[in-house]
Design a protein that fits this description.
Elements: H1 8-11, H2 14-24, H3 37-47, E1 53-56, H4 63-70, E2 74-77, H5 82-98, H6 106-109, E3 126-129, E4 132-135, H7 145-151, E5 155-156, E6 165-167, E7 170-179, H8 181-189, E8 196-204, E9 216-220, H9 223-231
Parallel strand pairs: 1-2, 7-8, 8-9
Antiparallel strand pairs: 3-4, 5-6, 6-7
Helix pairs in contact: 3-4, 4-5
């Protein structure tokens, strides 16, 4: 049963945490405010069991993820600063899963192995202007628009604010993100009622599967376009 008073002899201190980072990255300036692995070990062991999920919204130097990995917990961490991710979090976790990290609590828990995946979250599809939520310019008819318009045999119209192509009475919109019902309604309100709309998106909200639109065709951006887009 843990006590409410945790002396540094038991859970470490800031200087110990900085030494842990220096052992991993001897040629880098230490992270400003790291936490010692022993402190995170106690917190995680109190709050979770093996196999549970640990969430850290402010990853920092990656101590929470490193300790959670060593304690056989699943984990999700989030970090806004890209330099912190590239300089500390990812290299540190690679050392952890490869068994190269021998510091912190590694020897105590006899840890070695595992894996992880990391993603870069793109900009929001929405912006706020004068208190009104609007579709961000980059999310609608952005870099993918020309490729999709050509593939689907539309006349490419890059100067149109919301639609990037036209074919007879049908307008084309390309969504670089998730297509939602709200976005479909936004596009419908931006066009003539007599025209038709085709929308190609990276992803489609499952709720739209049950929606019936008389003048709207919804689909995902073709895979061959995405493969080409990934190479450019």
């Amino acid at each position: 049963m843990p006590t409410t008073w945790w002396p540094f002899e038991e859970v470490g201190h800031n200087d110990e945490a900085k030494k842990e980072i220096l052992d991993l990255f001897p040629n880098k300036e230490p992270f400003e405010t790291p936490k010692p692995e022993r402190l995170l070990q106690r917190i995680i062991q109190i709050a979770t069991n093996e196999g549970d999920m640990v969430l850290d919204y402010f990853a920092g130097s990656g101590t929470t993820a490193a300790v959670a990995q060593k304690l056989k917990r699943k984990w999700v961490i989030v970090e806004k600063n890209e330099d912190t991710i590239n300089n500390f979090v990812v290299p540190r976790l690679k050392k952890v899963v490869s068994g190269e990290d021998k510091g912190g609590i590694s020897e105590e828990v006899n840890w070695n192995g595992g894996g992880f995946t990391y993603y870069q979250v793109e900009k929001s599809m929405f912006e706020v202007h004068a208190g009104i939520i609007c579709i961000a310019e980059h999310s609608l008819n952005g870099k993918l628009a020309k490729l999709v318009a050509i593939q689907l045999e539309y006349d490419y119209q890059p100067d149109n604010e919301h639609f990037c192509g036209k074919k007879g009475d049908t307008l084309l919109a390309v969504v670089d993100g998730m297509l939602t019902e709200g976005l479909v309604n936004f596009l419908l309100n931006s066009m003539d009622e007599k025209k038709f709309l085709e929308v190609a998106a990276l992803a489609v909200d499952p709720d739209l599967e049950n929606k019936n639109y008389n003048n709207v065709k919804i689909g995902k951006i073709p895979n061959n376009i995405l493969r080409h887009y990934a190479r450019t």
